[in-house]
């Protein structure tokens, strides 16, 4: 009994599968860079380095505030894949580690599985400062800015306490999935009340400024800077979206500050 030879594998299908794996790895790099607070140009560079390092000959990326779409090609074959972008944050350590790894991938010698394994390793092992360090450091920074803004020494400790508790509350609320805008209002109310009321109890002459200084931890400095930079570098869509997000955070924070100010005036 004779058997017919197996049909040859479809080279086009195999090539599409290869390109799909490359596109997904590149998208993962871009998504993490966005979520770490990277500028659009940095995301473009990271995605391009990974895709070309894995064998893609052409790379075209569309960056949106909430999604990414990449088209990679090799010869006559192309494939497009999209990925959702999660909550934007600021993680400078992971951002730098991912950039270095993208350069390593661009040098060649790694396959798709190795790239995913490398990204997993960076996500899992890149160190984070513990909350018991971050919260007091944030409170101290708020108190230091308060002094620069003219707040007297009497209010230094209340502002520090307000900023510390506010940072702790922000961390816990975000980890519980609370909407960032709602979080901004709640934290501004809590931190502002503690800082303002504490300053009032101690007899400070700058209660209102102490109240506002306690909420400085909510100022979205990195997103605001990135919004301006993205617009100037030719990415007005994402830059404008970031600017709107900054404005929304400030509106909700202002609402919390207004509530804290009203309560502090009522409290003895």
Strand count, sense and closure of the main sheet? 3 strands, antiparallel
Number of β-strand runs: 3
Q: How do the helices and strands follow one another from N- to C-terminus?
A: HHEEEHHHHHHHH
Strand order of the largest sheet: 1-2-3
Can you count the helices? 10
Low-pLDDT parts are 1-11
Shape: elongated
> Overall pLDDT, averaged?
91
Estimated helix fraction: 55-70%
**Rg computed from alpha carbons, rounded to a whole number of angstroms:** 24 Å
For the record, give the distance between the C-alpha atoms at the N and C termini, rounded to a whole number. 100 Å
How would you classify the helix and strand content by structural class?
mainly alpha
* Strand-residue proportion: 5-15%
Provide a descriptive summary of the structure in words.
- This protein is mainly alpha-helical.
- 66% of the residues lie in helices and 8% in strands.
- It has ten helices and three strands; from the N terminus they run H-H-E-E-E-H-H-H-H-H-H-H-H.
- Strands 1-2-3 form a three-stranded antiparallel β-sheet, covered by helices on one side.
- A hairpin with a 2-residue loop joins strand 2 and strand 3 (77-84).
- Helix 1 (11-35) runs parallel beside helix 4.
- The protein is elongated.
- The model is unreliable at 1-11 (pLDDT under 50).
């Amino acid at each position: 009994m004779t058997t017919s030879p197996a049909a040859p594998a479809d080279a086009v299908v195999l090539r599409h599968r290869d390109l799909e794996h490359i596109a997904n790895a590149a998208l993962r790099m871009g998504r993490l860079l966005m979520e770490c607070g990277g500028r659009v140009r940095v995301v473009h560079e990271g995605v391009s380095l990974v895709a070309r390092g894995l064998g893609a000959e052409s790379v075209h990326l569309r960056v949106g505030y909430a999604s990414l779409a990449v088209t990679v090609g090799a010869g006559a074959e192309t494939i497009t894949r999209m990925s959702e972008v999660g909550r934007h944050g600021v993680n400078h350590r992971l951002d730098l580690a991912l950039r270095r790894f993208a350069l390593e991938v661009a040098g060649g010698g790694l396959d798709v599985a190795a790239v995913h394994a490398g990204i997993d390793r960076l996500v899992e092992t890149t160190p984070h400062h513990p909350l018991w360090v971050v919260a007091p450091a944030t409170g101290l920074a708020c108190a230091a800015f308060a002094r620069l803004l003219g707040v007297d020494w009497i209010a230094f400790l209340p502002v520090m306490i307000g900023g510390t508790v506010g940072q702790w509350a922000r961390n816990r609320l975000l980890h519980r999935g609370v909407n960032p805008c709602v979080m901004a209002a709640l934290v501004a109310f809590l931190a502002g009340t503690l800082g303002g009321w504490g300053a009032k109890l101690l007899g400070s002459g700058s209660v209102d400024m102490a109240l506002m200084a306690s909420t400085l931890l909510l100022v979205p400095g990195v997103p605001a800077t990135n919004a301006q930079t993205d617009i100037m570098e030719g990415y007005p869509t994402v830059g404008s979206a970031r600017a709107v997000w900054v404005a929304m955070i400030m509106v909700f924070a202002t609402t919390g500050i207004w509530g804290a100010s009203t309560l502090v005036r009522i409290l003895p």
